[in-house]
Amino acid sequence: MKYLLLLLSVIALGSCSKTEESTTNPGTNVGSAIAPVELTVGTAKSGSVAKYGSSFYKFTTSSSGAGSYKLKFASMSVSDSYSSSNSIKAYLYSGSGYSSAIEAETCLTACDMALNYRNLDNSTTYYLKIYGYGSVSYELTVSQAGSEGSESAPVALTLGTAHSAKVEGTWVYGKSYYTFSTVAADNYTLTMTNTNSLEATLYSDSSFSSGVHYCSASSSLSCSMDNSSGGLSASKTYYLKVLVTSSTAQTNTFNLTIAAEGN
Q1: Contact partners, residue 10, CB within 8 Å, separation at least 6
Q2: What tens digit of pLDDT does each residue of 189-246 get?
Q3: Cβ atoms within 10 A of the Cβ of 151, count?
Q4: N or C: which end of the chain has fewer CB atoms below 10 A?
């Protein structure tokens, strides 16, 4: 009798193990750290990730593609998730070693990830790692968003010519980068047709660290830019950063013009 009870216990344990295993859907990881799947900016690609797993991607910005980008996850199907608030987490990296992510964001259902409105450089390859809280399938699209330029690749402006500008995001994070070169020593006027309140800072260096003039936040921003010596120097390149001032995300499109005042 004792042996019969022991045999029944073993059979019961085996049955429980099989039941637990059959409810687990590990899903499928896509790509690897050494062979990430190539994404084309603006083109959707089907993908998936396993529970507790990671899928790997990369994309390259165009020669004129400096600015902010977004990740769009659509047609998502989630199963066996261990989280009620997240289904995936996306990590953005600037290097192929997938170490020290420069941005990270989570998503529960179909969503657009703004990646903190970070401005990416042109002609540069970036890397993505998608972590699965459950088994998830999706369509992933990387596309350009609503800010332009970057510290390394600011948009070049032509003096006296209106530029169709844009900036998107929230205060601190939403910014666009520009550059222009003076002809004569003079004060130069910045004129913008923005509806929402924006601010701008003029810099004398390409690292956007040495500010020489600040234009206070305003709609229809217009200010005369000079420096401590009374005017901008002749034949010098300056750098301009335009920033969102709102605590809630907004998208701004406007004309931006820089012109010499003729003083």
Answers
A1: none
A2: 999 999 999 999 999 999 999 999 999 999 999 999 876 667 899 999 999 999 999 9
A3: 17
A4: N
Query: Where along the chain do its domains lie?
Result: 37-145, 154-260
Backbone angles phi, psi at 25, to 5 degrees: -115, 100
pLDDT tens per residue, range 133-158: 999 999 999 999 999 999 999 999 99
39, two tokens: 């994404």
What would be the CATH architecture of the domain defined by 37-145? Sandwich (2.60)
| Spatial contact of 247 and 201, defined as CB atoms under 8 Å apart | no
How do beta strands 67-79 and 198-203 pair?
Answer: unpaired
Q: Which helix (H) or strand (E) holds 5?
A: helix 2-22
Rounded to the nearest 5°, which phi and psi values hold at 203? -125, 155
CATH T-level fold of 154-260: Jelly Rolls (2.60.120)
| Burial class, 225, CB count within 10 angstroms (exposed 0-12 / middle 13-18 / buried 19+) | buried
